[in-house]
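Dig into this one:

. . .
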Amino acid sequence: MSFFGKPSGGEPRITFERIDLAAEPPASAAELSSRLLADRLESRMDRAKNREEDFTEAGMMLVAADSEVEGQLRSRGAVRVEGVLRGTLHAPLLLLEPGGLVEGTVHVERIRLCGTLRGTVVAREVEVVRTAMLDAELVYDEISIERGARVRGLHRQRDPEPAPAEAAPEPAAAEPRPEAGVEVLDPALMATAAASTAALVAEAEAALQGLAQATQAAAGAVTELAQGGIKELVELEAELRETPEQILQDAVTA
């Protein structure tokens, strides 16, 4: 027997690999990203559910679908709004259900928005579900927004609170440092230099006194010379002039 006109003796060997048609094809990058996002949302919703249960233990306030509340509202537990709430709300948790409406200012630790909100929200955590309609100013630490939610307004993340700074120890009184270019001398050396300077000053004063005395003596000599010296010079000149004549006379007499 032969295939494609080839003799049976030279038939090629054909191997088959097992193919499981029931297995799922490998996921693409987009599918992996969507699965990862879904897992994150699911884990976040689980944590939110646990927190809601914690707040519920403290008591829950309900604004029913057929009711409307207006004014200032404070609660130590969770607040669930299925109807209309207008005014100011302070609570740990706010659950705004689909069909519910909140208009005003909301201060909470955590808020989950599934309905309509207009106004201002200050919260640590904000969760916006795809059914939410939001036209407000949001100030938050963390936020999550599902695709499909309609969100408008000013949204900004709250600045983290600075850690309390430890009181810095008071600096010890530092010794005055000399200015640049000024040489600091040893006090002992300064005392020695002062003593040497005083001795030099005393010697200089003594020398000046001696010089003054010599000057006075010279002035007296000049005065004496001026008074009697001229007469003596005249007599000496006369003697010198008479000396040759006297010598000649003595020679002749001899």
Remarks:
- Residues 55-157 form one domain.
- The first helix runs from residue 29 to 57.
- DSSP finds two helices and ten strands in the chain.
